[in-house]
Amino acid sequence: MSQTVPVPHGLPMDRDANPFDPPRALTRLRAARPVSPLVFPDGHEGWLVTGYDAVRQLMADTRFSSRQDLGVLHVPYETPGMPVPTEPSPQIPGVFIAMDPPDHTRLRRKLTGAFTVKRMKQLEEHIVEVTERQLDAMARLAPPVDLVREFALPVPSLVICELLGVPYEDRDTFQTNSAKFLVKEQTLEEKMAAYGALTTYLAELVTSKRAAPGEDILSDLARHDDLSIEELTGIAFLLLLAGHETTANMLALGAFALLEHPDQLAELRAHPDLLPDAVEELLRYLAVGDVFYRYATEDIELDGETIGKGSTVVVSLLAANHDPRRFEHPDTLDVHRKARGHLSFGHGVHQCLGQQLARVEMRAGFAGLLRRFPTLELAVPAGEVKLRTDMNIYGVHELPVTWTTETAR
Ligand code: HEM
């Protein structure tokens, strides 16, 4: 493997002019050295994996531990007040995304039944109703409106609240605090304060469900005597956070991408049966949850490189999804593409538990939005849309849109 490519110092994640393409620095690195050494901002060395095959192989290999990073509380390089990790991070009870088997398996197994394709099919009609109600409310407003606030955030929040049995009226508590975790430059103190507020709220909620269970996923979990209140709280935290931030950003950034690709939007409007493929393509193309961390528990060979025991490994799902060795013309959004096999939901034992739910929400969301608002367009120049380059989940902070009122259905 070539040693001539400069080793990046810090993550080369800054976007260039086009808000959708992977950063050029990342693309160059993938072409030259898909498994590349990396120097973290504090000077300690790790690895950055950008090639499709290498990312897939890594995520399927549990010798790469997930006990490195939550993307929320930890970053694997020194932040003020935080030591450089030299061993796996301590586990937070219930937060199984940052656990390895067998702990991970024990907790995930309790939830698989709740998120199967079959369960999600049964919920589909209801999710369509939630989406349509939200679109009814939006159609009553005088444009321009912010699509994030009126549509992209409420739909997945309403759905996950209902599934988990979290009162939607409490959304200010969880939306504000979850957003605080995802700010890249947030101080550890602020993250801990947001985490504390959220878990205090959720601990009370799961305690009341254990005492008087209802008809929802958290109540079902609370019926398991072998789960402690701390574990229930951690699971609730993970599901709530993962369940609304990711899908909300896919809906908003997806709408922005379609509006910026009028030919693709027209194709989709003309052939609504393309929607399931278009959703997979948007997932591939946008990969809103891009960066994940792993920790090598032994020396491991990956794509001709030896990753030393104890190394931190950063994975870019966006770079992998845009690897020309896997997808032809990868930087082109093509609603006709068969994009299955993309890595936006990860791969291996941690592959997204909520992916079927996310698919149902996105199909209902894009179908409804395009049908009800045939003249939808941006209300500001594309260059003025505020991108979430400061957040750990990419997307847009706001998406001002408008339409000709008499065309809204
Ligand atoms: C895991 C992406 C929606 C719950 C993951 C992972 C990715 C991902 C990449 C793997 C993380 C890793 O390997 O470390 C997405 C995207 C979504 C989405 C792009 C929307 C478009 C959802 C929804 C839920 C959810 C709606 C609802 C419950 C989870 C959970 C995990 C997870 C619980 C951890 C699984 C495990 O560790 O076994 N997601 N997700 N996600 N996701 Fe999602």
TrEMBL record:
| Sequence similarity | Belongs to the cytochrome P450 family.
Pfam family example for this protein? Answer: p450
Q: Keyword set for this entry?
A: Heme, Iron, Metal-binding, Monooxygenase, Oxidoreductase
Region: Disordered; residue ranges are: 1-23
Protein name, UniProt field: Cytochrome P450
InterPro entries hit by this protein: Cyt_P450 (IPR001128), Cyt_P450_B (IPR002397), Cyt_P450_CS (IPR017972), Cyt_P450_sf (IPR036396)
